[in-house]
Design brief:
It is a single chain. By secondary structure, the chain is α/β, with parallel strands linked by helices. It contains 7 helices and 6 strands. The strands form 3 sheets. It has a two-stranded parallel sheet. It is elongated and about 65 Å long. It starts with 6 loop residues before the first helix and ends in a 7-residue tail after the last strand.
Length: 216
């Protein structure tokens, strides 16, 4: 990603762990809810490493964002919802103005933090995952589902199936199954697919894969 930094993209990235950051007035704090351990570490480690490198780039190449340096602290969740909540509570008030935002990196944590973020007035960023209903900003004023949601992805999938068979109206009477990870993020598309099944007249079946699931 060369050139200027997109503000929301910069907001979605994090960096190295700091046990006790020292803050100045021209610094902004961003907590990192990471999962370098646990069954999903295979994806969590490179993801956080990329964020670490990108925040370093912002600070070292650009001097921060509009002159404001980014200070960050990493907290290990192991992709566990309770540990994600603990990390949020421990880091949300760090820095001169508290956390600029929180990226939960887990749909389960996103659900748990929705009410807390509203009460604490801390923006909750969920780029491509999280609580799909939070796209209604009049209700979820502190949730920001950047990019798509599980519901929009479900609709795209059904529209694609319809296109492949000559039109979405031809889905009527067909059987469509969702093989899903039996966790909050895996279950999120189900309400949308049930609504689409009613709309287009196809038979929907959901098939869970127990946690932690197969090799993803």
């Amino acid at each position: 990603m060369a050139g200027r930094i997109h503000p929301w993209w910069a907001a979605g990235f994090c960096a190295l762990a700091m046990s006790a950051p020292a803050f100045a007035q021209n610094e902004q704090f961003i907590p990192i809810l990471a999962y370098r351990t646990g069954v999903y570490a295979v994806s969590g480690v490179p993801y956080v490493n990329g964020e670490v490198d990108y925040y370093r780039l912002i600070n070292e190449r650009d001097g921060g964002i509009n002159g404001v340096k980014i200070v960050f602290a990493e907290c290990e969740t192991g992709y566990a919802t309770d540990r994600g909540l603990d990390c949020y509570e421990r880091l949300k008030r760090n820095g001169p103005t508290g956390a600029a935002f929180v990226v939960p990196r887990s749909t389960g944590v996103a659900f748990l933090l929705t009410d807390r973020a509203y009460t604490d007035k801390v923006p909750l960023l969920t780029p491509g995952y999280g609580r799909a209903a939070s796209k209604d900003g009049s209700v979820f004023m502190w949730n920001f589902p950047l990019l798509g949601t599980y519901w929009s992805a479900a609709d795209i999938a059904i529209q694609h199936v319809g296109k492949e068979i000559g039109g979405v109206e031809k889905i009527k009477g067909k059987k469509i199954a969702l093989l899903f990870h039996d966790s909050p993020y895996g279950k999120e598309p189900i309400p949308a697919l049930l609504a689409l099944a009613h709309k287009y007249g196809f038979e929907f079946r959901s098939i869970p894969v127990p946690h932690p699931g197969l090799e993803q």
